Each structure stands twice: as C-alpha cells, then as structure tokens.
Amino acid sequence: MEELYVLYFARLVEFFLHLTTQRDLVDELIDDTMVEVWQRGASLDASTSVSVAIMRLAYSFGRKRVIEASETRPHLRHAIQNTDHDGSLSLDTASNKQDWFLNLPSEERALLHLVYARGHSRREIGEIMNISCECVDVLLGDARRRVLQ
Question: Is 143 exposed, middle or buried (0-12, 13-18, 19+ CB in 10 A)?
C-alpha cells in the first residue's frame, strides 16, 4: 500500500487539482481515495490495469466528494464548475474564473487531464469515467469547442 501511495500521490494531486482548486480538499481526496483503494484492493476489477482501477476510484469518489463539499461548505462552491442544464457555463461561475481551463465543466477538465496529461486511451477513459467511448468523443469535442470559443 505504501508503494501505491508513493507511486500515485503526484498523479492524484494533479488530477484532483483539475477537479477543485482547494488544496485542503485535494489532500482529503487523496487520503480518502487511497483508503478506498486499500479497502477494495481485492475486489478491484482484475481485467483493467491498476492505474485505470485507481483512477476510476479517484474520479468517482473525487467527483462525489467535490460536489458534497460544495454543498456542505459554501465557501468551496467555486471549487467545482457549475453548468446550466444545457451544459453551458453559469455566468456567476464564469465571471469568478480567470483561467479558461477552470471555466470548463469538471468532467471536461478531468477528461482533458486524462487525455493530454496522462495519455489514457478512449477505452481507458471510458472505464475511468464509467462512460462509453462515444461519450468520451462527445465530451472531448465539447471541451475543444469551449476552448476555441
């Protein structure tokens, strides 16, 4: 477990910083994710790589925790990206952001990180985010369009 923690710590920091800008929440998410890895270790899907299995847990667990934190700690509301029902940026959130990347919905930020920073394949990203390869393509297209606007 210590080896996994050391091996994945930097990857998880980088990944969670793309979901939230709150360092205290990032630290909690890393600890909680690695506890989850330890508790589920034997039941992790043997058909996927360790990296994909850990990132799948990190994504699902992290996404849930970031949303919960924004609801229970109002000062963290800007830690996740709010979108309207049509997927467009909420004006109140967009006006508080300086960085184009932080203006993207958290799913798109996570996707871009997994594609460009970590080099995961469409299939691996689909497994991590629990979506089809076609949905990966749609999300990536949406992210590219938002960036080019």
Answer: buried
- Compute φ and ψ for 90, nearest 5 degrees: -75, 135
Structure tokens belonging to residue 59: 């994504």
Q: Answer with the residue of higher pLDDT: 136 or 101.
A: 136
- Convert the pLDDT of each residue in 103-117 to its tens digit: 788 788 888 889 988
Instruction: Decide if 146 contacts 108 (C-beta within 8 A).
Output: yes
Question: What is the C-alpha separation between 147 and 73, in angstroms, rounded?
Answer: 29
Distance, first Cα to last Cα, the chain? 44
Q: What is the mean pLDDT of residues 113-136?
A: 91
Rounded Cα distance between 18 and 26, Å, is 10
Q: How far apart are CA 136 and CA 111, in angstroms?
A: 8
Contacts of 14 (CB under 8 A, 6+ apart): 113, 117
β-partners of residue 89 are 83
Per mean pLDDT, which range of 4-8, 15-19, 45-49, 111-115 is the poorest? 45-49
Q: Supply 47's token pair.
A: 């058909």
Global pTM exceeds 0.90: no
- The total of other beta-carbon atoms located within 10 Å of residue 11's CB is 17
